Amino acid sequence: MNRISSQQVFANGINQLQKLNSTLNNTYEQVSSGKRVNKPSDDPVAAARILKLDQELSRVKTYERNVNLADNRLKQEESALSGSVDVLQRIRELTVQAGSGSLSANDRQSISSELKERLGQLVNIGNTRDASGEYIFSGFQGSVPAFQQQEDGKYAYQGDEGQRVLEIDDGVTVPISDNGKEIFVNIPAAATGEPGENHTSGYVSGVSVVNEADLKAAYNGSYPDDITLTVDSQGEITATSATGENLDVSPKDYESGEPFTVAGIEATLSDIKQGEESEFTLKVGQKQSVFGTVENLIAGLDSLGKDSPESRARYDDLIAQSLTNLDNAQESIILKQTELGGRMNAVESTRDFLADSSVYTNEIRSQLQDVDYAEAISNLSFQSFVLQAAQQSFAQVSQLSLFDRI
């Protein structure tokens, strides 16, 4: 015969009340928090999946921050480049004005003054900083201004050729910077002519590339460092490349002020004294910074006059070369803007993908974790009723005694 002591009755009753109270508290916590799973024991399988989903959401948020950073940096660079195009367009307009034959010395000085202001404006754009104070065109040297004025008054690039990249999704990176050397410095320069080592008299002018295919063919597809022109005492023009190869000249006979062509380049030689031998150099395929172009233009406006045929020719060459260099600079910047547009499209596409991923992940997480309020409130009411009934029953049973039956 089993015997149940009063102590066992009390212990069983208290345990049952504790279980009912714990269940009620869990349901109450679900209702108050809005979550069906508040701790792993509530639903171990769902809790494990929710943990993985939380990790996925954390990953997405990290990449979304990177996307915003990349977007801001690229938009800032694009804005800076747009500003530089506007400045260069104004400089080009001033250069065209400077080429007018009716300008006085004072007019040229007035143009020079505005060019100096525009040059400073262009340098400021080249030294644009981001929100953290770093120079966006200095490569990896963000703490160093991209362009600084040297002792000779000219501006030089101070950064490196690094390009920063940022990961905006798993395995997806996008460049978020461009160094100023690539954009503002390494710009193809117009062909120029100057006296050679054995120059005795005369000058070269009107140098321009008229047939780029012939130029490339003459150098097997690569640009030369320079071409040496020699006019001998008999008035015959000969040309040699930087590697010593003979190049065809047409016409070969020198005639002052008359153009000739060599390897797709047209030039004019003038005022070489009869019976003398003189040497000149044609510079082709050189690079010149946009700042150097404006600096040379300013120096020419401040110093070159038109009091002799040579001075007029040098001045006209300066204007023509400056216009070509400015066009090349604008083209370089516009090409970079096009490249930036592609990057910005990639960033925007990634932003949309991450946003969709976040929505999808949150929906699955919500299905696993969010509580069904109607069911939870119904359970809460029922469990409250059961607990009250159990409490009342235990109260009555706890008052019973064997002596009550004697």
Features:
alpha+beta, f41 fragment of flagellin, N-terminal domain, five-stranded antiparallel sheet, elongated
Description:
With about 400 residues, this protein is α+β, with helices and mostly antiparallel strands. Among the domains are: about 55-185 and about 325-355, f41 fragment of flagellin, N-terminal domain (Up-down Bundle); about 190-285. About 55% of the residues lie in helices and about 15% in strands. The protein contains 8 helices and 13 strands. A hairpin with an 8-residue loop joins strand 10 and strand 11. Helix 2 (about 45-100) packs antiparallel against helix 7 (about 310-370) and helix 3 runs antiparallel to helix 6 (about 290-305). It starts with 5 loop residues before the first helix and ends in an 8-residue tail after the last helix.
Work out the helicity level. 40-55%
Find the CATH topology of the domain at 56-187 and 325-356: f41 fragment of flagellin, N-terminal domain
N-to-C span: 21 Å
Chain-averaged pLDDT:
84
Structural class: alpha+beta
CATH superfamily of the domain at 56-187 and 325-356: f41 fragment of flagellin, N-terminal domain
General form:
elongated
Spatial order of the strands in the main sheet? 5-13-7-8-9
**Strand portion:** 5-15%
Number of strand elements: 13
The level 1 CATH classification of the domain at 56-187 and 325-356 is Mainly Alpha
Rg over CA atoms: 41 Å
Q: Helix-strand pattern, N to C?
A: HHHEEEEHEEHEEEEEEEHHH
Low-confidence stretches: none
From the coordinates shown, what is the CATH architecture of the domain at 56-187 and 325-356?
Answer: Up-down Bundle
Main beta sheet? 5 strands, antiparallel
State the helix count: 8
